[in-house]
Design a protein that fits this description.
The complex is a heterodimer. Chain A is built from 10 helices and 9 strands. Chain A is an alpha+beta fold. Chain B is an all-alpha fold. The chains are: A alpha+beta, B mainly alpha.
Chain lengths: 342, 148
């Protein structure tokens, strides 16, 4: 869809959602690059209400022709909505459209939290360098708060598929091994060995069945130069499961960004301490190791799917090639490290 | 590398040409060209050593499979490993080397699982060799900007 048509159709859609508004118009629309599973746009919505001119910065997240990660946009939308207004900072969700009629594919619209960084590029330069430890403590504190949250009280138990504490590891491993089976374009000896180890050495049952963000890592939150976090993003893989899954994913060595510590932010023991203090849970080393190795399997499944999506030809966005080229070997190395072979 | 470098370069060529048109929104153009530049940089780094890496890796895999054939008692599996171990990289085209690499890795995965299942001293010794080879292969494939 051409940008002029997108502006027109988005404006018409917004006007239909705002019966008290006149002269509704979409302006200053710009694609935000970097997302491989959704197309993300920043835009300003302008309208007149009660004789007064108003403007608001908003975000449009639309499904591309062939998404990298097959997820329900309702899951992502409801996860944001559940946490909005609480201690976990997230943007406000406005509208969800699950059909193709309005914009050609499903989408949602959310408030824009402006003025903060999300990308990792500037993180290890001034003026952010001095605040990295504070940012790290904040990052794992928020993750602990997500783990502590009650899925039923948040309304997410009604949206996300139920699971039992003793089954969560098998369900997640089955799912991501299935993705590898379907999408692998070259054999992966390291990851297949990791899967055999995971099945032979299952973790203990989850301490609780919690909300799992699913992609909680540096780069998926909005931060400032004082160590503050203003919005946790990318909830599209949110599900119910073992809270150690998110902690293990955050410790995936590919998210060290070459800085020698988790997230490129904080020594591992300090990150664990912040998470345990906020969650009220324990990160037993053996169980955490299982989830760290699982994170390597899940990561590899996502990078492999990225290559498959590009090769299938429906979506030739260059962003799909980057993880396949830059991260598949890195993820193998991460798995080798976690298993003690590198 | 998957997708193949030649395929990606062909796609990037078309993409760069399209972005030369004057009516492309600046933010879209910046995003596409920035990513294209990133991939071109990766391709440049991979290109010179790609064939050598695959030739070395295939030779190491054949050596492991030859050793595996000596310890795997089951006849059809032993012959399978022996046949693969005796192969040679006749063509130095990346597509041919990659195809052979895939076949060899399928066999390595089967051998690795069998060694784990047996667990006797001979199997454990060869399993250590498999892990050493996998680590060495990941070292050879490591890009300069790799996070791990």
């Amino acid at each position: 869809m051409e940008e002029t048509e997108l502006v027109q159709r988005l404006g018409a859609y917004a006007a239909a959602q705002m019966p008290g508004a006149q002269d509704v118009a979409v302006t200053e629309i710009a694609r935000i690059t970097g997302g491989a599973s959704r197309q993300t746009y920043r835009f300003t919505l302008a309208w007149t209400e009660g004789g007064e001119a108003r403007r608001r910065g908003l975000i449009l997240r639309r499904d591309p022709a062939d998404s990298l990660i097959d997820t329900e946009r309702r899951v992502e939308f409801e996860a944001y909505r559940a946490f909005h207004g609480g201690e976990v900072p997230v943007p406000e969700m406005l509208w969800l459209e699950e059909g193709d009629a309005a914009l050609g594919s499903p989408f949602f619209v959310a408030e824009e939290i402006a003025g903060f960084q999300a990308g990792t590029g500037p993180l290890w330069t001034a003026p952010y360098l001095d605040s990295l430890p504070a940012l790290g403590r904040r990052k794992w504190t928020i993750l602990g708060q997500i783990a502590r949250a009650d899925p039923t009280a948040l309304g997410l138990a009604a949206v996300l598929p139920a699971t039992r504490a003793e089954d969560v590891w098998r369900r997640e491993l089955d799912h991501w091994e299935g993705v590898l089976d379907a999408d692998e374009t070259e054999p992966l000896p390291v990851i297949r060995a990791a899967i055999r180890w995971l099945r032979a050495n299952p973790p203990p049952p989850a301490q609780k069945v919690a909300v799992v963000h699913g992609d909680y890592r540096t780069g998926n939150f909005l931060y400032d130069a004082q160590g503050g976090i203003h919005g946790v993003l990318d909830w599209e893989m949110c599900h119910l499961g073992d809270p150690l899954e998110d902690l293990g994913w955050s410790f995936n060595p590919v998210w060290y960004f070459g800085q020698g510590k988790p997230g490129g932010l904080l020594p591992r023991d300090e990150a664990v301490a912040a998470w345990e203090a906020a969650s009220g849970l324990t990160a037993a080393p053996d169980a955490l190791k299982w989830w760290e190795l699982f994170a390597c399997v899940k990561g590899q499944a996502i990078w492999v799917s990225s290559a498959k999506t590009w090769l299938d030809g429906a979506n030739r966005d260059p962003i799909l090639v980057y993880p396949a080229w830059a991260l598949i070997n890195a993820q193998d190395r991460a798995a080798l490290k976690v298993m003690g072979h590198l | 590398m998957t997708p193949a470098v030649s395929q990606v370069l062909a796609d990037l060529a078309g993409r760069v040409a399209r972005n030369a048109a004057p009516n492309i929104p600046p933010a879209d153009r910046a995003g596409e060209l920035g990513l294209s530049a990133l991939l071109l940089g990766l391709a440049a780094e991979m290109w010179d050593g790609a064939a050598e890496i695959l030739v070395q890796e295939n030779a190491e895999l054949r050596s492991l499979l030859a050793a595996g054939a000596k310890v795997w008692g089951e006849e059809s599996r032993r012959r399978w490993l022996e046949a693969l171990a005796q192969g040679r990289d006749e063509s130095l085209r990346l597509s041919a080397l990659q195809s052979a690499n895939g076949e060899l890795k399928v066999a390595l995965i089967a051998l690795h699982a069998e060694l784990e299942r047996r667990g006797d001293p001979d199997a454990k010794a060869l399993e250590s060799e498999v892990w050493r080879a996998l680590a060495a292969a990941s070292d050879r494939r490591r890009l300069s900007g790799s996070p791990v």
